[in-house]
Design brief:
By secondary structure, the chain is of the alpha/beta class. It has helices at residues 6-11, 24-27, 43-46, 64-75; strands at 2-4, 17-20, 36-37, 55-59, 79-83.
Amino acid sequence: MKQMTAKEVEATLNDLTVIDVREPDETAAGKIPGSMTIPLGLLEFRMHELDKTKEYTMVCRSGGRSGRAAQFLESQGFKVINMSGGMLEWEGKTE
């Protein structure tokens, strides 16, 4: 599984499609601008919204849930990157 640090994601954010797999109460406190929110528990049921020709960067609080999400999507044929360290490491703007 490919990994990127929060700094690398921030530096290339305009070129990335970010999916935040945290719960709604967590994302309400702030998320990466432009990211989509698909809680980990709903990912299996919402993956039809994703395009297998695109690459997705997965984000959560610390990198654990996003790692599981990335492994699951990879097993379904998607191209994914896990943001290691999650939002705990994020120093960029939030919305």
